[in-house]
Amino acid sequence: xxxxxxxxxxxxxxxxxxxCKHLHKQFQNAQIESELYAxxxxxxxxSSFNTIIIGASVRYGYHNKNVIExxxxxxxxxxxxxxxxxxxxxxxxxxxxxxxxTNPYFIKFMNKIDCKRDFIDVFxxxxxxxxxxxxxxxxxxxxMVITKGSTDTKTPIEYTNWDRVNSxxxxxxxxxxxxxxx
Length: 182
Ligand SMILES: Cc1cc2nc3c(=O)[nH]c(=O)nc-3n(C[C@H](O)[C@H](O)[C@H](O)COP(=O)(O)O)c2cc1C
Known about the structure:
Layout: E1 4-10, H1 15-29, E2 33-38, E3 51-59, E4 62-63, H2 65-73, H3 75-78, E5 82-89, H4 104-112, E6 119-124, E7 126-127, H5 134-146, E8 157-158, H6 162-177
Parallel strand pairs: 1-2, 1-3, 3-5, 5-6
Antiparallel strand pairs: 3-4, 7-8
Helix pairs in contact: 1-6
The structure holds flavin mononucleotide (FMN).
Flavin mononucleotide binds at residues 11-16, 57-61, 88-91, 125-127, 132, 136, 140.
């Protein structure tokens, strides 16, 4: 049976888009139809998808509120299909905060949405000082000092564990190929 996945992302500096694009390619390689949308550009009927994946990054402690609003507005349709939620933030690089159950932003995010969730995960993001405006650079540097991260403003660091992104995609693929197993 044909299965269509819709991937909707909210990004500021492009890293959540990169992760979602990676998943999109993974599904296409597995011969599963996949469509990728920025949340601002999504204007499709949710019921035309069998799975919806929603990814969002964290800025100053919060996910884009439009994402939460989108989920809660569409919860009835989302509850009829498979759903997956992923968060991208820098705190995931800390072993004690690197799971959906221990990442404080993801816990907050999940508490704000009123919708079933079939697949969830958190991914470490990218630290990209050269792209940040003065104030953000200063604030991120301060956060990095407090959390013992990199304060080298010249070198971008991608903390994302791509094997983990692949495993997340594979779980969704396996569930489509044999829906009774998870
Ligand atoms: C202005 C700013 C604020 C951020 N605030 C947080 C934060 O509060 N907690 C955190 O873990 N990461 C924080 N980050 C890190 C981002 O979540 C990370 O860089 C992520 O890869 C950004 O994804 P995006 O490019 O899709 O927006 C922040 C980054 C920026 C630039």
